[in-house]
Amino acid sequence: MSANKKLLILPGDGIGPEVMRQVRRVVDWLGRRRGIAFEVKEGLIGGAAIDAHGVPLSDATLAEAKASDAVLLGAVGGPKWDKIEFERRPEAGLLRIRKDMELFANLRPAIVLDALVDASPLKAEIVKGLDIMIVRELTGGVYFGEPRGITDLGNGVRQGVNTQVYTTTEIQRVARVAFELARKRGKKVCSVEKANVMESGLLWREEVTALHAAEFTDIELSHMYADNCAMQLIRNPRQFDVIVTDNLFGDMLSDEAAMLTGSLGMLPSASLGAVDADGRRRALYEPVHGSAPDIAGRDIANPVASLFSLAMCLRYSFDMIAEADLIEKAVAQVLKGGMRTSDIMAPGMARCSTTVMGDSIVRALDKLNVA
Ligand code: NAD
Questions:
Q1: Other beta carbons within 10 Å of 147
Q2: What pTM does this model have?
Q3: Ligand 1, atom nearest to 295 Cα
Q4: Which residues sit with their C-beta closer than 6 Å to ligand 1?
């Protein structure tokens, strides 16, 4: 970790700037009340960058992202830019920053806060206290493997091909992230593949097992087939701590796990890359949700997913566990007190705006900081 803490904030489009305004307030609070001086810069991505520079991510912003200790992103996209060709759309900016920063591990926690246990589509007794982390390999596997394409076999028959491919290096680096995370959590990793029917899955299992034996015997390792994991996430999700899996299975299992919590506006994520020569790990933190054009500009979006993304940033990029805990506790307290943005509104609770939710969280931080 470098001495000065460089943060790049990319608010993006739609509700992105609205929720990131609340993130900025908490970053400023950390400076004021905890003496943590971040060097904060802001930049453009997505539609906002197209409007200003004609491209969804400029080279200058990308260079800034690579020079930062962490990037905090809002969301991109919106109907205004839907007609532009695919490579110049807002989403292309997001894909470029993830690819150029070589962010190979995607972390998606699924946490059910006591105050929101009824928002889950599952019974409270199944999800109460849930706190799991899915680590998805993000830059390899069947979404990128060659050969790929659609070929004409003649006689009106066509063939679609995608290739699931993993190298030992790709498996080891994402498994290492999962084991290291587990060390900071419940010390359990479940590795998920289909070793029963796929060679790439068999290699995955062998490599994870070998890495565990060589470096992580303090962590409890189990293996599970992906289809069983999909079932177990519904039957008994609390059996898991950290799940590590490939790009394709991770895509599905992380969405399934997200729905256990029942609220898109609450879900953060992190994407991590390799550790460089200075010991700094490239990292981007963002809410799982998109730019929500249907509610943008009305100050009603839930800022919690973005604030939880900031908490992940403090925890994983800066090792500021106490500050990350503070933010999570402040949010839990505000929700316990009955404040709700529209997306998580429930009978008997008090509906509030994005700004008022931010106000309440900052006030809760003040109180927790003194206590
Ligand atoms: P979305 O996540 O933006 O919205 C889905 C639904 O959830 C909407 O009804 C929205 O109002 C609601 N919602 C989302 N976040 C919320 C929040 N914080 N508070 C309250 N309600 C919230 O997904 P979508 O509608 O499929 O996509 C809208 C745009 O966002 C598209 O242009 C899409 O390409 C883009 N998108 C971007 C990202 C990203 O930037 N990472 C991710 C997904 C979608």
A1: 9
A2: 0.93
A3: 11
A4: 15, 19, 75-78, 91, 94, 264-265, 286, 289-295, 301-302, 305, 341, 343
Yes or no: say if 8 and 64 are a contact pair by the CB < 8 Å rule. Answer: yes
Q: Provide the residue count of the chain.
A: 371
The C-alpha angle with vertex 295 and arms to 292 and 296, in degrees rounded to 5, equals 75
**Residue matched to tokens 């020569």:** 277
- Please report, in tens digits, the pLDDT of each residue of the chain (371 residues total): 445 799 999 999 999 999 999 999 999 999 999 999 899 999 999 999 999 999 999 999 999 999 999 999 999 999 999 999 888 999 999 989 998 999 999 999 999 999 999 989 999 999 999 999 999 999 999 988 999 999 999 999 999 999 999 999 999 999 999 999 999 899 999 999 999 999 999 999 999 999 999 999 999 999 999 999 999 999 999 999 999 999 999 999 999 999 899 888 999 999 999 988 888 899 999 999 999 999 999 999 999 999 999 999 999 999 999 999 999 999 999 999 999 999 999 999 999 999 999 999 999 999 999 87
The protein residue with its alpha carbon nearest to ligand 1, atom 37, reads 290
Give the position, in ligand 1's atom list, of the atom nearest the Cα of 74. 40
Query: Which has the closest alpha carbon to 11: 363, 263, 282, 309?
Result: 309
